[in-house]
Amino acid sequence: MSQYSYSVTCTECGAVDEGQVDEMTAAFAMEDHCDRCRQCGSQRVRSSWAMPRISEATLTRWSREASLSFLSQDEDIVLSEADGELLLACADHPQTLPEKRLTLARAICVRIHDGLTSEEDDRQQEARLAAAALRARPQLLDALAVDSYIGRVVAPWLHRAFDEASGQFVPE
C-alpha cells in the first residue's frame, strides 16, 4: 500500500511533525491533520503533504460520502486533474450523491476550459470529446453553475448560452 509524506512546522514553538499516511488519509483528511501544532495547539503552522492522484477508489468513496472533500476550496479544479473517463463514469453512477455529481460536472467543465485554451492539439481534442459527453447529459447541465471565465469559453461547446448573473448554462 502506498504511503504519502506530510510535514507540519509550528511558527510559534518550532515543533516539527513529519510522517506518512495512507492514500485515503492523504486524499481526504490532511487539511484537518495539518491545521495545527500537535505540541502547543497553535494554528500558526506551515504544512505540506503529498496529494495522491485521484484513483477510482478515492473518487468512488468521495462520491458517496457527503462529508468527504479532496480540498475545502477549488475541489472542482483538483478533480479536473483526474482521468476524464473516470469523472464521467462516477457522475453517471446511481450511487453518486447529487451534490457530488454537480462537482464532477464542474470539474469536467474545468477540463474542457483548460483543454480549449491549451495550445496542445491532443488537449483540445480531449476537450471537444468531453464537451460532447457532457452535452449528452442535459440533466447535469440544467442544474450546473460555474465561474464566468469557464462558462464563457465552455458554453458554445455545450450548445448552450451562458447566463453571467446565475453562472448557469441555459438552452439556446
Level of helix content? Answer: 40-55%
**Distance between the ends:** 49 Å
Largest sheet at a glance? Answer: 3 strands, antiparallel
For the residues shown, what is the average pLDDT?
Answer: 92
Please describe what this structure looks like.
It contains 9 helices and 5 strands; from the N terminus they run ββααβαααααααββ. It has 172 residues and is of the alpha+beta class. It has 2 domains: 1-52, no CATH class; 54-171, no CATH class. The strands form 2 sheets. It has a 3-stranded antiparallel β-sheet. Strand 4 (160-163) and strand 5 form a beta hairpin.
Question: TL;DR?
Answer:
47% of the residues lie in helices and 16% in strands.
Question: How would the blueprint of this fold be written?
Answer:
Blueprint: E1 3-10, E2 16-22, H1 23-28, H2 30-33, E3 45-49, H3 56-64, H4 75-79, H5 84-92, H6 98-116, H7 121-135, H8 138-143, H9 148-154, E4 160-163, E5 168-171
Antiparallel strand pairs: 1-2, 1-3, 4-5
Helix pairs in contact: 3-5, 5-6, 6-7, 6-9
